[in-house]
Amino acid sequence: MRNPLFVRSRVPFAVASALVVLLSGCGDSRIRKLSKGISRDSAMKILGGTPADSTPYIYHTSGFIVNGRRIDVLYYDVQGRKRFRDSAPGEELTPVVLEKGQVEGWGWANWDSVAKSLNIIPIPHKQ
């Protein structure tokens, strides 16, 4: 017989976990303003910047050249954390994928798809 207290105690955790995944990036107002095909400069303006830091919400960047195609990935972090200074779990970052200097897409599903098609191993983002 199942313990009803145990089952009920897992429900809030499961709901909270699902909300974190859904709201990490896709729900952020800056990410929602991105459009496929806009330039890197336009994307950077949307994602925020100041004279002191032109990439305040970019945790890390990666660049790849595969079969003559230039692919850049901006790992957006709504909290403004920086690699080598702060720690940020992959699931809290939102990759913004650029090809030839234009936004190709964003989110882990997009980056996983692009990476798989080009045989690139993306940073781990799932626990």
Detail the topology: elements first, then pairings.
Elements: H1 4-23, H2 29-32, H3 40-47, E1 58-66, E2 69-76, E3 94-99, E4 102-106, H4 108-117
Antiparallel strand pairs: 1-2, 2-3, 3-4
Please, could you describe this protein's structure?
- There is one protein chain.
- The protein has 127 residues and is α+β, with helices and mostly antiparallel strands.
- It has one domain.
- Helices cover 33% and strands 22% of the residues.
- It contains four helices and four strands; from the N terminus they run αααββββα.
- The protein has a four-stranded antiparallel β-sheet with strand order 1-2-3-4, with helices on both faces.
- Strand 3 and strand 4 form a beta hairpin.
- The protein is globular.
- Mean pLDDT is 80; it is low at 10-25.
Quickly count the helices: 4
Order of helices and strands: HHHEEEEH
- The figure for the number of domains is 1
Largest sheet: 4 strands, antiparallel
- Quaternary assembly: single chain
Give a short synopsis of this structure.
This protein is α+β, with helices and mostly antiparallel strands. The chain has one domain. It contains four helices and four strands; from the N terminus they run H-H-H-E-E-E-E-H.
Could you name the key traits of this structure?
single chain; 127 residues; alpha+beta; 4-stranded antiparallel β-sheet; 4 helices; 4 strands; 33% helix
